[in-house]
């Protein structure tokens, strides 16, 4: 008996190894050189389920793509796999919106031999396309060569599922704070594209924003529900820039970056870094100060959020002709950073400070002192002249700064993530 078990194990290993070493099935030139999957992306949606026992949030991951074919040619379908990125097993998530098959290939032919046809795996209420048949990938009579690395080999060795040629999106149940990946390979008959058009996308880590975008709930209602369901929130809240001060003489600016701590904020620390690459005059950042919160915005005025303290720091020596990227890294206790922030984008919060169309003579940017008048003179489509003119007893003193419109914007991004 033990001999039989060992024999079966070695047979499986040998078969898997042969599949990996097999020569790829010869494909039509259109499949190998002309087909292209474009606009491949992964998005998330949230559905709120209300019941007597309480609310529930169902998160789904949606992978979508477009395709470009050679004229007069189209593949039979796609081999796909959606799975949690970084998992050792890379298990395929069950597809919710299309029929799939792990042992068959959709063929653009309705006249398949009955002995070749296998049953698809279809979600409730979903029917397969009527203009195709699902042919057994291991011995389909429509295949020219079954001894090469084709659809059957990819399904066995990589766990890919076959979907029809008209499929352009796949949906599956997901979880918060988990990155997902899609593998996408077009196929024609037994031949599979050697190019993988898949991508990896950071997980849905902002419960408040996802619920707000996916439902008709207000921001305050979304925060309240996410808190009640104990969905951890690792991003700063109410992130903003204030007290932006511009100096026409030096061409420099300063700003205060401030935020409220996340809902999940036990043992939190913040570190900040302003990169200085390509800048001859690097900005200067002050220490992060922990201050008493004066008032929380209305959407955070919920019982589950307590913002006793907020955080802020000053960034100065900003050249108003340059763009700056401000990174803020949170550190949590109990290995939370490693669990939920293994990718920088999983802990990213972004705030854009757009100054491109701002009149620096307007409040609160006007730097001119009392008895000085701020003058803005647009000399051309690409040049703007600012000056603080002193007007007393007919005297005029001008301090001017020539600004190129193409450079007259400052973008400050605040990024939460591991550096």
UniProtKB/TrEMBL annotation:
Signal peptide per UniProt: 1-19
Organism the protein comes from: Clavelina lepadiformis (Light-bulb sea squirt)
Keywords for this protein: Signal
Entry protein name: Uncharacterized protein
């Amino acid at each position: 008996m033990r001999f039989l078990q060992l024999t079966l194990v070695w047979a499986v290993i040998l078969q898997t190894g042969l599949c990996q070493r097999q020569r790829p099935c010869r494909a039509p030139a259109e499949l190998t050189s002309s087909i292209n999957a474009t606009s491949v992306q992964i998005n998330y949606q949230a559905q709120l389920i209300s019941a007597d026992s309480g609310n529930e949030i169902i998160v789904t991951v949606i992978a979508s793509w477009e395709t470009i074919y050679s004229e007069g040619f189209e593949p039979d379908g796609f081999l796909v796999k959606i799975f949690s990125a970084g998992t050792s097993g890379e298990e395929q998530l069950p597809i919710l919106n299309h029929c799939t098959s792990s042992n068959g290939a959709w063929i653009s032919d309705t006249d398949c031999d009955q002995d070749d046809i296998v049953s698809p795996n279809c979600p409730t209420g979903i029917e397969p396309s009527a203009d195709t048949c699902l042919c057994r990938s291991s011995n389909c009579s429509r295949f020219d060569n079954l001894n090469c690395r084709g659809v059957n080999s990819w399904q066995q060795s990589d766990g890919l599922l076959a979907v029809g040629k008209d499929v352009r999106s796949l949906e599956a149940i997901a979880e918060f704070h988990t990155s997902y990946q899609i593998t996408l390979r077009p196929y024609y008959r037994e031949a599979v594209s050697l190019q993988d058009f898949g991508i990896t996308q950071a997980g849905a880590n902002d419960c408040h924003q996802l619920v707000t975008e996916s439902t008709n709930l207000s921001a305050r209602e979304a925060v309240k529900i996410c808190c009640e369901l104990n969905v951890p929130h690792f991003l700063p809240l109410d992130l903003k820039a204030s007290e932006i001060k511009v100096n026409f003489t030096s061409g420099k600016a300063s700003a205060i970056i401030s935020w409220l701590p996340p809902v999940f904020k036990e043992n939190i620390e913040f570190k900040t870094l302003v990169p200085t690459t390509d800048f001859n005059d690097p900005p200067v950042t002050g220490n992060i100060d922990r201050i008493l919160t004066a008032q929380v915005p209305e959407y955070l005025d919920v019982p589950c959020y307590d913002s006793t303290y907020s955080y802020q720091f000053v960034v100065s020596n900003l050249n108003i002709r340059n763009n700056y990227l401000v990174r803020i890294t949170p550190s949590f206790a109990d290995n939370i950073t490693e669990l939920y922030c293994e990718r920088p984008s999983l802990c990213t919060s972004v705030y854009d400070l757009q100054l491109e169309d701002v009149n620096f003579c307007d409040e609160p940017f006007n730097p001119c002192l009392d008895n000085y008048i701020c003058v803005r003179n647009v000399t051309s489509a690409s040049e703007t002249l600012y000056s603080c003119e002193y007007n007393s007893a007919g005297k005029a003193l001008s301090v001017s700064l020539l600004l190129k419109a193409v450079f007259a914007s400052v973008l400050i991004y605040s990024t939460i993530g591991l550096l």
